[in-house]
Amino acid sequence: MSDRLTMEELATLMKSAGITVDPSELASRPDSRFDDYGLDSLGLLGIVGELENRRGRALPTDADRCKSPREFVDLVNNSLMTGA
Amino acid sequence: MKSRTAGTPVAITGIGVVAPNGIGADAFWKATQAGDSVLDRVTRQGCEHLPVRVAGEVRGFDPGALVEERFLVQTDRFSHYALAAADLALEHARLGRADYEDDPYAVGVVTAAGSGGGEFGQRELQRLWGQGPRYVGPYQSIAWFYAASTGQISIRRGFKGPCGVVASDEAGGLDAFAHAARGIRQGSRAMLAGATEAPLAPYSVVCQLGYEGLSTWDDPERAYRPFTAKACGFVPAEGGAMFVVEDAEAARRRGATVRALLAGHAATFTGTRSPDSSGEGLAHAIRGALREAGLAPEEVDVVFADALGTPEADAAEARAIRDALGGHGSKVPVTAPKTGTGRAYCAAGTLDAAAAVLALEHGVVPPTPNVFDVCHDLDVVTGSARVTPVRTALVLSRGRMGSNAALVLRKGPESRA
Q1: How crowded is residue B134: how many other Cβ atoms within 10 Å of its Cβ?
Q2: CB-based contacts of B71: which residues, under 8 Å, 6+ apart?
Q3: Angle between the B275-293 and B311-325 helix axes, to the nearest 10 degrees?
Q4: What are phi and psi of B72, to 5 degrees?
Q5: Do A18 and B68 touch (CB under 8 A)?
Q6: Is the distance from CB of B258 to CB of B248 less than 8 angstroms?
Q7: Domains held by chain A: number
Q8: Reduced to 3 states, what is the DSSP secondary structure of residue B350?
Q9: Residue A1 lies in a domain
């Protein structure tokens, strides 16, 4: 489903927060912490906002508290599926 | 944390400058000493049609080459200058992570800022009203704020010592040195201190249009000529300077060069009513700073003037210098290199302090560009630099809102002759 959040798209969103990361690195180490990539809580909040604008729908309120790419991608995709 | 006494000598060991006339202490000093004026027509996007025609813009500054992208996206231009200037100051002081990684609490940061991040704030407000609240980025919450530079320098470098922001009008740039000295005397090993400003963005410029004394002349050579009969106000500028401030003894122990000593500081507040009262307040600040330094008026070798550039404010400053220094006030060399770069609000005092430290190091008083035919009883250095032994420099700063400050710098014992 094209609506699903991929590691490629997450890498693009992280770029807008000033973090350059290879999508394959995100995919191969999905449990690394956002902190370790240098992404802070406001950065993740900005990514949530951008993603909500792109998808035209709200994400769960705890989306910006996710600690790792895997946690975030799973939460976003579960939410998109159940809301569809 | 070891506490030191009130008399502990506090040293400047590193200077980081991002100024309209040069990036880095060497480039800045070369242009300042030569008396080059870089005042020019305002070219910043969105500002071209505004009534302020001339300014001191920092050109050729590439933040992406100096600061990591993740810090750039969450900060305004004024913080970009501060982050870059802090790096330059640390490099100049040869103070690296190895010097403090055993005790990150030993290093603190203090900055002063007047206008904060107007350019960043304007962009986000335009998103708010153009696209809606969902398009305002979260960094709006921190980037516009005048505390941003202190916080980001501290985070980026891992400095966990005392961090603060001076909000005391334009004179805050000099007050930051006093706060840094206090940090050292309370036990910090080093403090990053200074100020940077970025007031050349459309929203910020519009905010300044009501300032009495803002020059709207369109000739870069005539727009800012303090202490002359043609004085028509001041020209705004951006940029600023950061400094590494250390306990002088500790600096020597680690092999650092003591470039100058922070000998004395005092500040007063006289309100906005009239330039006359700023003269009295400034004189009081000068006396206080000399008292702390334990120096007589005759020992001042050069005065870096505030040079607000209106006839009343210039007269008040000339009177303050003569009142506080007595007969020496008419004889001591007075300079205002900012006539070649513009007045960078809070950062103006820090750029003057940088020029003063370099003047002490080199034994040269830089000139006051574009100023000729001085109409006050002051020995203003015009035309070209004056080579003269300089052991003590007095730096003056006033804010339009009524703050006045004086800073006394002494030549470091290890400076070049």
Answers
A1: 11
A2: A18, B83, B152, B156
A3: 30
A4: -70, -40
A5: yes
A6: yes
A7: 1
A8: helix
A9: no
CA dist B17 and B289 (Å) reads 24
B17: closest CA among B173, B243, B171?
B243
Closest CA to B192 of B85, B108, B67, B84: B108
Say how far apart CA B386 and CA B401 lie, in whole Å.
Answer: 33
Does any CB of chain B come closer than 8 Å to the CB of residue A69? Answer: no
CATH number reported for the structural domain that contains residue A66 in this entry: 1.10.1200.10
Residue B417 has pLDDT above 50, yes or no: no
For residue A37, the enclosing domain spans 7-83
In Å, the largest CA–CA distance within chain A is 33
Sign, CA torsion A43/B87/B38/B369: positive
From first to last of its 84 residues, what are the pLDDT tens digits of chain A? 458 999 999 999 999 999 999 999 999 999 999 999 999 999 999 999 999 999 999 999 999 999 999 999 999 999 988 865
**Closest chain A residue by Cα to residue B131:** A53
Pull the structure tokens for residue B356. Answer: 């003063």
Q: Which CATH superfamily is domain B10-253 in?
A: Thiolase/Chalcone synthase (3.40.47.10)
- CB-based burial of residue B294 (10 Å sphere; 0-12 exposed, 13-18 middle, 19+ buried)? exposed
- Residue B74: list chain A partners with CB under 8 A: 17-18, 42-43
Over the range B384-413, which residues count as b (16 or more CB within 10 Å of their CB) and which as e? Answer: ebbeeebebbbbbbbbbebbbbbbbbbbbe
List the structure tokens of B342.
Answer: 């513009």
Cβ distance of A17 and B73 shorter than 8 Å: yes
8 Å CB contact between B384 and B294 = no
CA distance B139 to B190: 29
User: Contact at 8 Å (CB) between B286 and B299?
Assistant: no
Domain boundaries defined on chain B: 10-253, 263-411
CA atoms within 13 A on the CB side of B193: 30
CA gap B210, A80 in Å, rounded: 52
pLDDT, position B348: 98
Q: Does A65 touch chain B (CB under 8 A)?
A: no
Alpha carbon of residue B85 to chain centroid: 12
